[in-house]
Each structure stands twice: as C-alpha cells, then as structure tokens.
TrEMBL record, chains A, B:
<protein>
    <recommendedName>
        <fullName>Anoctamin</fullName>
    </recommendedName>
</protein>
<feature type="transmembrane region" description="Helical">
    <location>
        <begin position="203"/>
        <end position="232"/>
    </location>
</feature>
<dbReference type="InterPro" id="IPR049452">
    <property type="entry name" value="Anoctamin_TM"/>
</dbReference>
<dbReference type="GO" id="GO:0005254">
    <property type="term" value="F:chloride channel activity"/>
</dbReference>
<dbReference type="GO" id="GO:0005886">
    <property type="term" value="C:plasma membrane"/>
</dbReference>
<keyword id="KW-0812">Transmembrane</keyword>
<feature type="transmembrane region" description="Helical">
    <location>
        <begin position="496"/>
        <end position="519"/>
    </location>
</feature>
<keyword id="KW-1133">Transmembrane helix</keyword>
<feature type="transmembrane region" description="Helical">
    <location>
        <begin position="586"/>
        <end position="608"/>
    </location>
</feature>
<feature type="transmembrane region" description="Helical">
    <location>
        <begin position="238"/>
        <end position="256"/>
    </location>
</feature>
<feature type="transmembrane region" description="Helical">
    <location>
        <begin position="352"/>
        <end position="372"/>
    </location>
</feature>
<dbReference type="InterPro" id="IPR007632">
    <property type="entry name" value="Anoctamin"/>
</dbReference>
<feature type="transmembrane region" description="Helical">
    <location>
        <begin position="309"/>
        <end position="332"/>
    </location>
</feature>
<dbReference type="Pfam" id="PF04547">
    <property type="entry name" value="Anoctamin"/>
</dbReference>
<feature type="transmembrane region" description="Helical">
    <location>
        <begin position="395"/>
        <end position="416"/>
    </location>
</feature>
<feature type="domain" description="Anoctamin transmembrane">
    <location>
        <begin position="195"/>
        <end position="621"/>
    </location>
</feature>
<keyword id="KW-0472">Membrane</keyword>
C-alpha cells in the first residue's frame, strides 16, 4: 500500500512529513487500506489527493502514518481554504492558483511560500473534508455508520479507530523560534510574526494580547507604586488614580482592536472569508435534512436544546453559584475565628495563622474552579450544540460567570457589606498572589517537569530501535505522540481576564495590584512560551481575525469596574467628610459621576475607530475592486447580449 | 435630436416616461445636445443608453425632458444596481439577466416585473453614473469643470444648469394606493408592500415603523388610563408601571429589528450589497487621487475636517445648548411671574395666564429647533464630508443633541432641581400636546393647503395650452415640477424620537402621555400619507435594510429613561416613607435597582436574536450556496490543471 503513492505532479521527489495520524492498535487491515486509499485517491474519485507513508517502528503493532502533500497540491489547497497572502504590490489578496504569479515571493520552486503551519492547516482541512460517498459504514466496523457527506475523519475519531491527528514539529524551526522568543535575556517584543508562522494566528494573537496587555498595565503600575511607598491616603489622589484607571482601561481595550486589526491584516486573516461551519464532532441527533445545506446530517431540535439550557444548565449554574457563596461564608467564619484566636493568644504563630484562611480559600477557589470547569464542559456538551463556535460561547459564558463570582464575591462582600477596606486590601493581595503562583505552577512548571521525565524514558526506549527510516524522525514522532495536547487559549485568556478584574475592580483600594500583574505577566510570557515549545504537541494553526468573545468579556469587566470604583470612592471617609450634612447629596453626586464616567466610556469607545485609517482604506480598496469586477462582469453580459 | 432615440431592442414601441429632467431656462443648445446625446449613447461609448424625449410646452422656453428606458435596458440596470428579487423557489436572489428565467413572475413581455419605483431608481442610478470621459468642462460652460470619471449630472446640478431631476407620479397607481392607504375609514394595517413598490423601501420602512410603534404604545396607553381616571398615586403601582415601561420599551425595540428583517428580506433589500459611495454633491476639494479607487477626484484632508468639527462645530453646538438653557431659565422666571400674578389677582383670566408661559415656551422651542436646524445643516455642509452617509450622521447627531436638550431640559430641571412633580406633569402635558399640534399643522396641513391653491392656479394655466402630446402628461409634469420636494424621513423620525422621549423619560409621572402619543400617531399616519401622496413631488426610491442610526437613537433614549424613572421613583414621597431612617439606604437601593434594570435591558437585547430563525436560515443558505459556488470554481481550476 505504501508504495502506491499518488502524485499531483510526479516530479515531486521528496516526501516531507507534515501531519501524523495515529490509528488504534489492532485496527483491521481492510479499514487501513480503505482509509489510506481515500487519502491518496484523486479528487475526482472523492479522495484528498495527499501523500501517505507508514511509520515503521520496532514492534510494528503501532499504526502510525505520516501525511504530506506535493507543493502543487498545497497551493490548490491554499486556494480552497481561502488563504490570504501578500501580493507584489503589497496588498493582501485571497490566493488563487491562476493568479499565483502576482504574489510576493512566489516561485514554482519556492517551497517556503506557504509556512509549515499553513501547510498543516491545509492538510487538516483536506482530511476533515474527506467525505463518505456511498459507504454505509466504515469497512470492518459495521457499528461505525456513515452517510453520504459525513466527514470520514470525524467518524473515525468518534468511533475510536483514529486515536489522534497532530502536526509534526519542525525541530530546526522550533530551535530558531525558541532562541528568538525566550532563548536570550532581552527587553523587547516577542517575534509575533515568527510565532504566527509556526503556531498559527490564534496562538500568536494570544501572545500579542498578553504582551500588549502587560505594556498597557505598566503606566497603572508606575502610578500605583508611590501610593504604596508613601502610603498616600488622600481622597483626591485616589479619585485621580481611579479615574485614570477607568479611562485608561477603555482606551487600552479600544486601541487593542486597532493593533489587532493591523496584525491580522498583515497575516491575512482579517480578509479571510468565514468558512461554512460543519457540525462539531460531539454533535448527536437523528439523521435528517439540514435546511441550510439541503444535505443529510444529524438534526437536533433547537427547542429541546433550549429546554436543556434553561431547565437544566441554568439551574445547575445557579446552584453552583449558591454553593460558591456558601463556601465564601464559611471562609468568613474561619477568618473571624483566626482573628479571635490571634487576639487571645498573640504570638508569631497566631500572626501567621491570620493568613491561613485566605490562603486556604484561594486554594479552594482554584479547586472549585477546576471541578466546575469539568461540569460545565460536560453540561455544554450535553446541550448538544451543532456548531463548535456555539459550544465554545456557551462554555465560556458558564465558566466566566462562575469564575467571576468565585474569585470576586468575597471581595464584593468585604467591600460593600462589611465596609472593611483594610481587610479588602489584604484579601485582594492574598487572592491575587496565591492564584498567580498556583497558575504558574499548575500550568507550565509541573507539565514541563513531567515531560522531561517522560522524555528521558522515551529516549532509552527509542535508542534500541533499528529501522530503515531516518532515526530521528521515528524518535520524534514517538516522542511527540505522547506529549500533552494543548486545548486552546481558553485557560490563558481566563487567567488574564481574572487578573484584569483584580487590577481594575478595586484599583482605588489597592494600586499595587497592577505591579503584581505586570511582574506575573512577564514571567507568564516566558512560561507560556516554554509550554508551547516544550510541553505540548504542536497544535494545528487556526486562522482568526480577533480575540472574539474575550474582547466583550474584558469590556464588560471594565464597565463593572466603573461602578465598583465609584462606590468605593463614595464610601471612603474622606469623601464622606466632604458632605457632612447630607448623605443624600453624597450618593447623588457619586451616582452622577458614575453615569458621567459610563457615558464618557461609551462615547470614547464609539469615537475611537476600530481600525486604523490606512487599514480602512486598504479594506475599502479591496471592496471597491470586487464591486468593479462585478460591474465589469455585468458589462460583459450586456455586451454579449446587445453586441 | 429628439428623433435620434437609441433602442436596445428596437422593437420597443411605447415610450413610458419615468423621470423628468428640468434644465435651467436659456441653457445653451450645445449643452443640451451634448447632454442628451450622452444619455442616449451606447454603454460602449460611455453613454447611459436610455431614452429621452423633450416635453413640448406652450411658450417653449422651458427645457424639460422625459427619460425612459427599454424593458431590456431596465433589466440590465437592475443587475447593475444589484436588485434582489424573489425566485421561483421562493428564495430571494440578486437579479442577473442570464438567470432571469428563474425569477418569479418573470416573462419577457411582463413589464411589471420591476416596480415603477425600481425602474426610476435604476434610471437615477444610471444617470448619476454617467461620467465625464475626456471633457475638460461642460460644453458651453467653461466655468463648469469636468475631469475623467466625474459624474456629469452632479456637475450639472452644482453648476445650476440642471434644475432638478424627479420621478413622475403614476396617476393610476397613486389613486389605487391612496384608496387602499387612507381612502376608506378602516382599522387595520397599512398596505406596506404597495407603499414600498410605489415610494421605495426607506419611506415604506418609516410608515412601517410608525405603525409598529403606535401598536407598541397601545399597551402602555391602556395601562396608563386607569392611573389618570382613578388618580392612583400608590407607590407600588407607579413602580410597576415604570418597570413595565422600561422592559416593554426594550422588547419593542428588539422586536422591531426582527420585524424590520422580515420586511426587508421580503423586499430584497436585506440581501442587497452596499454600493460604493461616491462623494456627495456638495463636497469640495482640490483635485487629487482617491487612495481607494485610484481615480482623480476632489480630495479634502481629514485633519482639516476634524479641526472644523472640533474647533468650530463643537463650540457652536455647545453655545447653542447654553443659549437654550438660558431661554429655559427665562421661561421659569415667566412661570414664577404668572404664578405670582395668579395669586394676587385670582380670576378666570389669571387662571388661563398660568398656561401662557408653557405655551410660549413650547412655541419658542419649536422656533429654536427650526433655526438651529438650518445652522446645523450649514455647519455640517461646511465641514465638507466626502460621503452623504457621513454628512447625514453628523447632521443627525447635532440635531438630536440640541433637540433633546431643548425639549427635555426644562423637564429635567423641574424634576431634579425643583423637585416639583405637579409642575412636571403639567409642563409635560403642555409641551407634548403643543408640539404635536404644531407639528401636524406645519408638516402637512399647511403645505396641503398651499398645494391646493397652487394646483387651481396651475390648472387654469395649463388648460389654455395646445400641444401634440398627451394633454394630461404636460399638465402632470407642469404640476409636479412645482410641488415641494420631500427631503427624506429625517423630520418624521425626529418627531417620533421626541415623542418617545415624552412617553418614556417621565412615564411614571404622567402615564397619560402614551395615550396622547397613540392618538397623535393615528392621525400622523394619515397626515403623513396625505403629505406623500398629495403635497410633495414623488421622491426617488432608496433601497435600505433598516432604520439605521435611529435604532441607536431610540435605544439610547430607552437607556436614559431607565435612569430618569429610577430617580423619579426614588424621589417620590411614598418610597421615601419606606426608608424613614436612612436616606443613604434609599439611594443605594435605588442605584442597585437601576443597575439591575440596566443589566436586564442589556441581557435582553443580547438574548433576543435580531433576525427570526427562518430568516437566519435563509441567509445562511445563501451564504452556503455562494461558498459552494466558490469551491466549485476551485474544483474546476484544479481539474483544468491536473486533468
């Protein structure tokens, strides 16, 4: 089978492995033969027209295949996925094979025209679009049903025959990337373009946001330091700091949109057309006709989904929120108990004991967040969303609400029920620092250590092998297939979101939060980079034009922080002293200021354009060109009719 | 010249006049010859390939031309403007001549396939896109410069050679429309589809909104009546009414988006692609190169425009706002004086005198609004916006802010500075009713009466004419060219917007406002219909998919009304009595409720989908089809390369 490769252009001499397919041990021969035939088969016969080579290992009971493609095939695939590349005249355009000569750096023998991440994305796209023809089931597995148009790879995955598909690392490139990313100690920007061409746009955009956000926090941190050093407690200084914070957070979120547009324009994803979304792999339903495509596919009534969402998920989330509040009340009891103990037997130990409840609470919060996360994933999957994007949005919403309450409820309670600013400051500091330390540990250092141990073990095993293939490739594949899978940027954004909450919600009480956030983020960049390069399998690149729902989440947080900060300032004794006679006047003034600030926020968000002027012009130019092309077409029609 | 018509299909026997062009008296012969030649010339020669016929009048010194087009030409024009029509399978698609057979009701001899409004829109589009080739000026007028690509009609208009272009009424159709619209006394819906096919989408959408808004106000009015009849003053009843109002206003604005989507989908404008916007006629600048089109056209630096906006317009608007507040203070002095006078000499006269200041103020407000409107138009035009849409947005913003302050500042002052609920109710009633009466009079009755008088005079003049053309056509053109021009839906929407303010901002103080609004709107529908059919020239149809910036304006008003109503309820003696000890608690509670209501509003706006599910599916289907077509194209490319 391995000898029967099909080439698009038969002159392709070198097979460059791009993607690894791991089939379950003991997969039937007929299944393998059928699947590999479909992969190499011509497009006209319903194949993907890719190249496949088995990886020969020592024991031979592992079914690992390497997938590649000829250069020409990749170029045609680039057109199919709608890749946007730079032209000779510096404009960005959707790549088409017929206009290939107009693209920058294009040459028929330049195999670097497409980045490796792009090639892997194209192969993934082609594999996922390998569809059943008239097969009723997967050969050899009668229980794995197929129907015309069903994605074969998705069915193989859900029925467990296909263990995993992942793109291969490029050791050379990775080494270069590591060096320029975190290899040398330097102050400066990350090599975002290189990260993008290696890991794809979604991950590069996360690192871009992390870097931007860190830089944006620096002014807040710088202004916050003297408040701590000189122990400033003046009312007007705090008002100034809070006002600056509120306007600043609006500005940075708006400016991010512009920076994001500049980056994604350069990367081409700003112009990429949205592809039609297939049902997500976990979607179940009876076979019916999709009203949009007219194709047969599983159908699930949207009313039944709504019932599941509103009658099961919503009550469950509310219950979890209630439980979280209950735990919070226990924490306050503990806190009180520790305080009492400290007053009764004052000693170094009791002094230390004062911090114990907060630390325990921070740990419990982390644990609850993680458990809830599993529950939310289970529930959202059970809600049976047809589209991955809708699944993601519901999951993010569930997780965000719970995490928000879990992390901030105690702070709200301390601030607006207990009115204890000292305790608020102390809790804020404990929560922020504990969660940062826990995250750094759980996210990268622990997996890195596990990975290192595993690697040593693997090396020993691999060294004793003898095969006809390149030694290091077998070794590499065997190493990488055991590596952890990176499940997307969700957790990383969530961490930043909560950090933003700590910094902005109570900024006028604890100006030092920004300093900790900056310090954390600098190490976060390095530990996340380490994680991506060393700990996890290489993820498939995902083209994206923005950070999506996270932009909305950050903006919502910044609106909430206007409210909390205004209330905090209104409650401060200094401001209360300004209105000695009438508390009513005080609260009305605070309410007025709050509404004014909110209005200014919305006006600012409205006035600052989301895209810089030159990008706007470039986009308008493209739109104009496509309109002109359409008109030209009409003109041709007219001519062909009237001569 | 008039004899040298060019036909697309020479079998076109009947010339149906669609659009009237009036040139200035004494326009040079060479100009007329050149212009009409360009209109009838073939597309290939840069003409518009339309039909032109001079209107022969008695004295002959009037240069009036009738423009029409062959059926085939109109169909090709429909493709060029991107008209969307219904197909045989009930889906909506962009019309193309080559796929004409798949469209519903299409037949080569069915001249009703395109509505008259659509035909006139196509002719307008073709005339406006008649562009200069190598002419350096308009023949006969060296001062009227041209450059390649400049719209000839726009230059003729700005240099005063072209007096006006307007579409002809269709007496038969109009009669039918009038009959089904307001001809018989009936309770029921307006014939929106007929209005749309006669006047176009923008106007039909306005009447649709007016009707929808009136129906939506009915529940508010019904609930409001008992408050007036039984003089309810209980706190909880008012809270209920206000809460209902706030949620209701959110719901109706969201539901309107859905209804609007249903209508504009049926009309095809929801799917229509945005055309590239040309500079507006009033735009001035030195000749340069447009960075988007690469064409020569006037260019004006955006920085200079920003300077004009922020350094001249903004201060001027602020000054006007200050002046308006100043006038308001005078009104309050007057009011006080009338009150004093009434107390000193109590009589029927003095009782009546109490209402005089309010009435005077209402009249002054109307006058100030109208004067300011001219100033705003002048300033916005001087700001020199390149696009009509940007001009409109800046104008609407200026006018809205001023009108809002002018109409509501006194009410805010009474409510939140004087705390005088009785005066608030009285002022609200006076302002609302006076402005409604004034509007109805100034908007339709006055012009109608003027029009009637003018018509009689015209009839006498026309009857003495003798020409070879159809008598009634000459009469009709002469009548219509003297009619007033309808300047768009701006004033009509503005009126509704202010009315919405009167109803919602202080709804918990004056529940009867909704009743007056409903009554006004019922007569408004009839007087506006009268105005459209009898008073004004027929306007060109403008395809549009929604009510644009007005949706935002209404939503903003509904957010502001949450704030005002919460404050009003918080200030009511009944609520104050609930918190006898602590005013602080009261205000905090009110603030909490307000934020909750606002949060609910935003969540509701987010959760209610903007388009009904079936429209979403239809849109998704179209998108899917175009993606599939693209893929097909790629597949064909692949095949042609690899065989």
């Amino acid at each position: 089978m391995a000898e029967s490769w099909t080439f698009l252009d038969t002159s392709e001499p070198n097979f460059r492995p791009l993607v690894v397919i791991e089939l379950a041990k003991g997969t039937k021969e007929e299944t393998i033969a059928w699947f590999t035939k479909r992969i190499v088969d011509k497009k006209g016969n319903g194949g993907a027209q890719l190249l496949v080579k088995p990886l020969v290992t020592e024991n031979g009971d592992e079914n690992i295949y390497l997938v590649g493609a000829s250069h020409l095939r990749l170029l045609l695939g680039a057109e199919a996925v709608g890749l946007v590349k730079e032209c000779n005249d510096n404009s960005m355009r959707a790549f088409t094979y017929s206009s290939r000569k107009t693209f920058k750096d294009f040459a028929d023998d330049n195999h670097d025209f497409l980045t490796m991440a792009e090639c892997q994305y194209i192969i993934k796209h082609e594999l996922e679009n390998l569809r059943a023809k008239d097969e009723k089931m997967i050969p050899g597995y009668p229980q794995a049903k197929l129907y015309p148009g069903k994605s074969i790879v998705r069915r193989l995955l859900t029925s467990g025959i296909l263990v995993q598909i992942f793109p291969l690392h490029d050791r050379e490139e990775l080494k270069k990337l590591r060096h320029s990313w975190y290899g040398r100690v330097k102050v400066g920007y990350q090599p975002l373009d290189e990260i993008r061409s290696y890991f794809g746009e979604t991950i590069a955009l996360y690192f871009g946001f992390l870097e931007y956000f860190t830089f944006a926090l620096v002014p807040m941190a710088v202004i916050g330091i003297p408040y701590y050093v000189f122990a400033w407690e003046d009312y007007d200084k705090y008002v100034m700091f809070a006002t600056f914070n509120l306007l600043w957070s609006t500005v940075i979120l708006e400016v991010w949109k512009r920076i994001c547009a500049i980056m994604t324009y350069r990367w081409g994803t700003l112009l990429m057309k949205r592809q039609f979304e297939e049902p997500r792999p976990g979607f179940r339903g009876v076979l019916g006709v999709n009203p949009v495509t007219g194709r047969e596919e599983p159908v699930y009534s949207s009313i039944r989904r709504q019932i599941r969402i509103y009658l099961v998920s919503l009550p469950f989330v509310c219950l979890c929120l209630y439980f979280s509040l209950y735990v919070m009340m226990i924490y306050f009891d503990l806190e009180q108990w520790a305080l009492d103990y400290h007053e009764e037997n004052e000693s170094n130990l009791s002094n230390l004991m004062l911090y114990v409840p907060s630390i325990i609470y921070a740990v419990v919060i982390e644990i609850m967040n993680r458990i809830y996360r599993y529950a939310a994933e289970f529930l959202t999957s059970w809600e049976n969303h047809r589209l991955e994007s809708s699944y993601q949005n519901h999951l993010i919403l569930k997780v965000l609400v719970f995490n928000f309450l879990n992390c901030f409820a105690s702070l709200f309670y301390i601030a607006f029920v207990l009115f204890d600013m000292k305790l608020l400051r102390q809790s804020l500091a404990t929560l922020l620092i504990t969660s940062q330390i826990l995250n750094q540990f759980a996210e990268s250092l622990l997996p890195y250590w596990l990975q290192k141990r595993h690697k040593k073990r693997m090396k020993k095993r691999v060294c004793s092998l003898k095969t006809d293939m390149d030694m290091s490739l077998v070794e590499q594949v065997n190493l990488e297939k055991e590596m952890g899978t990176y499940f997307g940027t969700f957790d990383d954004y969530l961490e930043l979101f909560l950090q933003f909450g700590y910094v902005s919600l109570f900024s006028c009480v604890y100006p030092l939060a920004a300093v900790f956030a900056v310090l954390n983020n600098i190490t976060e960049i390095y530990s996340d980079a380490l994680k991506m390069c060393r700990v996890y399998k290489r993820p498939f690149a995902e083209p994206t034009a923005n950070i999506g729902v996270w932009q909305l989440a950050f903006e919502t947080m910044s609106v909430i922080s206007v409210v909390t900060n205004c209330m905090l300032i209104g409650m401060s004794p200094q401001v209360n002293a300004l209105f000695p006679d009438s508390k009513m006047d005080l609260v009305l003034t605070v309410a007025l200021v709050e509404h004014l600030l909110l209005a200014i926020k919305f006006i600012m968000a409205f006035v600052i354009p989301d895209k810089p002027r030159d990008i706007q012009i470039k986009l308008a130019k493209l739109e104009f060109e496509s309109l002109e092309a359409l008109k030209q077409q009409v003109r041709v029609t007219v001519k062909s009719i009237v001569g």
